[in-house]
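FAQ

Q: What does a record look like?
A: Structure on top, sequence underneath. For example:
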C-alpha cells in the first residue's frame, strides 16, 4: 500500500497543528504498514508551480482527443513550454494514481484552503488522468482521502460561522468529482484560543477539539480497507475568528 502525504501549512512543524496531526497519522500508518510505500510533499518548502498558458493549451488539446491516458499525452505535445509543463505534472499525477491513501494537511486560510494546496490541485487535475479509457470509470474509486483541517476559530455544525467553512464543501466536491468514494474530514478547531485574549475562555473547547482530532486521526491511520466516511465533527456553539 502507498500513503501520499501532503502538507500545505506555511507554519513549521512546531507551530502547525495540521502538520502535527498529519505527522501523527503518518507515523501511525507507517508503524502498521512497515512494507508500505510512503511519499511526502511539503508544499510550503517545495511549492508546485502555478499553471502556465502551455498547460492549458495542452489540456484543451487532450480534451479534444477524448480520454487520453497520461502515458499517451506526450504524443500530443507541440512546444517546449508544453513539454516543461507536462514534466512538472506527470510525476504528481502518477503519485496520486498510485496512492491507496491520500493524507492532506489543510489549515484554514481566509476561510478556504491554502494557495499552495490549490496549486497542487490545479496541476494534478489534468483531463482524463483519472478515467479508465476502456470503462470510463474513475481510477480513484478505491482511493481513500483523509483531510486533516486546522481552524483558528469554530466553524463546525451549529456554530455562528458554520457557513464560512469553504474548506469542507470544496474538497468534498473536488474529490467526489474525481470519483473518490471514501473521504474523511477531521477538524481541530479554535487553535488560536491559547493565543488570542478574546478567545481565552474557549481554551477548554479547543483542547477537546484537538484531543478528538488526535483520536480520529489515529483511528483512521489504522484502517487497512474501505470504511464508511463520516462528516466532520466539532463542538457545538463555538465562536471565534478565522484560522
Amino acid at each position: 500500500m502507498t500513503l501520499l502525504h501532503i502538507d500545505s501549512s506555511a507554519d513549521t512543524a512546531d507551530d502547525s497543528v495540521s502538520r502535527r496531526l498529519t505527522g501523527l497519522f503518518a507515523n501511525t500508518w507507517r508503524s502498521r504498514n512497515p512494507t508500505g510505500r510512503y511519499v511526502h510533499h511539503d508544499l510550503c518548502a517545495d511549492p508546485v508551480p502555478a499553471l502556465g498558458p502551455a498547460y492549458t493549451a495542452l489540456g484543451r488539446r487532450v480534451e479534444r482527443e477524448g480520454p487520453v491516458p497520461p502515458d499517451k499525452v506526450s504524443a500530443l505535445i507541440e512546444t517546449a513550454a508544453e513539454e516543461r509543463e507536462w514534466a512538472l505534472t506527470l510525476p504528481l499525477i502518477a503519485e496520486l494514481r498510485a496512492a491507496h491513501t491520500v493524507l492532506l494537511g489543510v489549515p484554514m486560510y481566509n476561510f478556504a484552503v491554502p494557495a499552495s494546496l490549490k496549486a497542487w490541485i490545479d496541476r494534478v487535475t489534468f483531463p482524463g488522468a483519472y478515467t479508465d479509457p476502456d470503462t470510463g470509470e474513475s481510477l480513484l474509486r478505491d482511493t481513500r482521502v483523509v483531510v486533516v483541517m486546522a481552524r483558528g476559530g469554530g466553524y463546525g455544525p451549529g456554530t455562528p460561522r458554520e457557513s464560512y467553512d469553504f474548506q469542507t464543501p470544496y474538497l468534498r466536491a473536488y474529490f467526489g468529482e474525481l470519483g473518490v468514494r471514501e473521504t474523511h474530514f477531521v477538524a481541530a478547531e479554535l487553535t488560536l484560543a491559547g493565543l488570542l485574549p478574546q478567545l481565552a475562555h474557549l481554551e477548554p473547547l479547543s483542547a477537546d477539539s484537538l484531543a478528538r482530532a488526535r483520536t480520529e486521526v489515529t483511528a483512521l491511520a489504522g484502517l487497512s480497507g474501505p470504511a464508511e466516511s463520516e462528516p466532520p465533527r466539532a463542538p457545538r456553539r463555538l465562536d471565534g475568528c478565522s484560522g
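Q: Is there anything notable about this one?
A: The CA atoms of residues 16 and 190 lie 13 Å apart.
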